[in-house]
Design goal:
The C terminus is likely disordered. α2 packs across α3. This protein starts with a helix and ends with a strand. It has 306 residues and is α/β, with parallel strands linked by helices.
Length: 306
Amino acid sequence: MELYQLRSFATVAELGHLTRAAERLHVSQPAVSAQIKALEDDLGLALFQRSASGMALTPAGARLLPLASRIIGAATELRSRASALRGEVAGHLRVGTLADPEFLRLPDLLARAVERHPLLHLELRHEVTGEAFRKVVEGELDASFYYGELAHPAVAPFALCTVSYIVVAPAAWASRVRDDDWESVAALPWVMTPAISSHHALAQTLFAGRGRVPETIVEADNETVVRSLVVAGLGAGLMREDLADTAVRAGDVVAWKGARLDTTLQFIVPRDRADDPAIAALAGLVRDGWPDAPRAAAAASVAAVD
């Protein structure tokens, strides 16, 4: 069993397709296929079910994937510690992202990484909050941005800023959205994100506090798609306040001012690897990009606006 075989296993499991896995790993598709076959032969188990549409984990593959991810993480940490002993910070870190790159200050983060730690390679992967947390815990990610409160023994979080959301609706629905009338807003069709996302949790908090259940007509996989669908007139939804302000000024949406929902943007790393030199260096780079970061995260809340 070789480490590169485990990397191929984890990458195919994530992407569900040999071609896309080969592209990410910068090897040929036959090479990835051969590595998976060799690993299966070594383990005596089928790790994937093959079909015309791609590769799906077998029950055995799903059981072994978290262990493979931890082994890959341990190997990364070993290399990182060896580099630290040589006075270098080096390694390959998989980092989960949630929102648009500019909001997360990713361009500046990457520029600092190149300047300070040229041997540190960051691989950015777009996630939703619930999946980002799971992947950090199970070793599929080395770190991630995260929305919301988090008290879990497996991760070490630190808060970056408070993020506010407001309710928006298509501009053509202005007559249906009155600031003092929650019932009219709640009765609108809504565009929602998946249940594992913090965006969805915020919407549920808003409705639960007012004794209603949203009528979801469209489920979008990320906030960018939510914005596009609201602008297109398909439903109301939650939008980050800075984006909502811009959309209102452009005449794309109308805002309901009856509530503001606050959550916390955090950065999380595995607690048992927090002192890994590469992860510690990454955490320092992230902190430097948020000099006004709060020392403690504030609880997510829904505030009524008078």
